[in-house]
């Protein structure tokens, strides 16, 4: 598909970092407010799809090749499974939450009942949210990119 | 504790996690070398197969293994996901691991000249992980998620040869029917959750009463799993999907189809096991009737085909009808103790043994068809002929598969089919007559195929056809040797492997008592 | 009566979706029918988690006077619905990619003309 006019391209470039920040906020606060890995990843992927529509699929594929996205997706999935296997080594069972109660990264335990939100809680769950978020961003952007490129090559064949 | 105890304690989680980790490491390793990737995939599947055998060895001795994710205690009420492995689950896991390992050894040479091979191996490992998850889990929603993983990954594998239009269309038909079946399953799970506030199979089986909504849920569950297993009248996707996919994909797909068949039996025997006094025996008769229709239709359609792989696919449909007939006959007499010992246990032993035999036999026939396609690039029976001179080993493997499918001694098909004939004859003579008739028609179909493909004068365009490469012969040889061993020593297999699986299905009380120790009831 | 409206809507959505999948010939309309069935089942899942006069099940800054946990709605059906939506997105992406390939081969999207010479 071809690119759109200069006004659309400029506004897309300005609002793209804001969309990324909003999506990362949703991913990282997944254990306190509604949200989490998939929801934040879908927001960032929508921002990337906006760039794809504004700049045209040929320019975007030139900048961001499809095998880099495949590599990023594999890294996200491997991080998730390795975090689950680390529970096997440190604790006792698979998927064990081994960071709760320790003072390494996300270890505070909140008091029961209604409290003010503290991002330092949750244990291994925020790290898993990041891994799932990276995988969802790479996966959804790759789907939209490949479909747009396929339809553009079908148009120029006619 | 030493490494064997560690592996045995954590084996239900490791069996699912190791293929999943290998599936996502494969694109990274395939940047190095093609050969390194093939060896890595075979190592991952070999490791998983050995852990499966280790777990099965312990489970067949009588212990049920449970595994709670995320915590160590099994306190009631269950809020976490639970994996519960009894003898029937271990039986299906053995079948799945053997089929996946053979498929990957076969693909070394069969699929070598295609592009996009790193995605091919990733999807095969994902399908295997999904299939293991489906048979090992003890939680209904987890079963739904793994069923969807398996169907999405295998749909992408069926449409692997995207340059041919027919393969893509077969994949589309498969994903539409599979998606509707999975949505019916989710609807039934929501019905059961809304009534009893539990997703665990053991907790649901403890609390279930046979109300009106439970009857709707039972019908939807059986319909959804039968749609995925290829029972008539929902078998439309099976001939297209099995025949247009590459041969190593078909053998993994056979494993996935048997896992959906396992879902029917888990629902009928364990989830609704406590209601056998309330429900009439008509559920068993419906399953027997579906099995009869499937057998007859599969054999009748196989007689008129002229495409090699499509014919084998229709005979696969007929074999699934045999399994339904055997286990359905056991379900009809489940409440009656002395009829159970005379009719039910032999029929169910035959049915469960036939699950393994069917997977091995149909797998071997598809591997032979793939070998012929690799050598001659032809699949139509009209154009093939006289290949026995050029491909000697393949001919021998096809004769072994022919005897096994039609139930002729000394192959393994004879042992399981004899058990089904004898026990269903006492239930109702018509069932046994229909079963013997379909076996005879299968023999006729395959003798015709053998004559037209392998015997006869050698055609001039097939003069340079050579034997297929060694890795494909090794894969076919593994399955053929297992078939011969099972056929020569059936008593050994039935006493050690099939009997624990059948008693695990019939005595649903043991399954429930692992989670809820105060459960009274059961056969 | 007003509390039964979501369940009536679920039945209507599932029946409309089944009608579209069975009786329409265009492949894109079949995909839309499957999406309608998915919406119906997701609505059913999330309606099961309703409790009368309840707040969202989040512990951060609850309104004062909420009884914990009887004043909150059930959180488990919300997690089940989210998983089902994610699976629906993946299946939709796969079906649309297959339709692009089919259109490239056959030039038409009519289900009866694609069937070819089977059986």
Specify the oligomeric state.
Answer: heterotrimer
Lateral strand order in the biggest sheet of chain B: 1-2
CA gyration radius of chain B, whole angstroms: 22 Å
Structural class of chain B: mainly alpha
By CATH, the architecture of chain C is named Orthogonal Bundle
Largest inter-chain contact set: B-C, 27 and 31 residues
Biggest β-sheet description of chain B: 2 strands, antiparallel
Work out the number of β strands of chain C.
Answer: 0
Helix and strand content put the structural class of chain C at mainly alpha
Largest sheet features of chain C: none
The overall average pLDDT of chain C, rounded, is: 89
**Percent strand of chain B:** under 5%
* CATH third-level topology of chain C: Helix Hairpins
**Beta-strand percent range of chain C:** under 5%
What is the terminal-to-terminal distance of chain C?
51 Å
Shape of chain C: elongated
Instruction: Assign a percent range to the helix content of chain B.
Output: over 70%
How many helical elements of chain B? 20
Q: Can you walk me through this structure?
A:
The complex is a heterotrimer of chains A (158), B (523) and C (119). Chain A is mainly alpha-helical and 158 residues long. Chain A has one domain (6-157). Chain A has helices spanning 6-28, 37-55, 57-63, 66-90, 125-157. In chain A, helix 2 (37-55) packs across helix 3 (57-63) and helix 4 (66-90) packs antiparallel against helix 5 (125-157). The longest helix of chain A has 33 residues, at 125-157. The two termini of chain A are 14 Å apart. Chain B contains 20 helices and two strands. Chain B has a domain at 280-488. By secondary structure, chain B is mainly alpha-helical. In chain B, strands 1-2 form a two-stranded antiparallel sheet. Chain B is globular, with a radius of gyration of 22 Å. In chain C, helix 1 (5-23) packs antiparallel against helix 2 (27-47) and helix 2 (27-47) packs antiparallel against helix 3. Chain C is 63% helix and 0% strand. Chain C is built from four helices and no strands. The N and C termini of chain C lie far apart (51 Å). Chain C is mainly α and 119 residues long. Chain C has a single domain (2-52, 71-109), classed as Helix Hairpins (Orthogonal Bundle). The interface between B and C is medium-sized, with 27 and 31 residues.
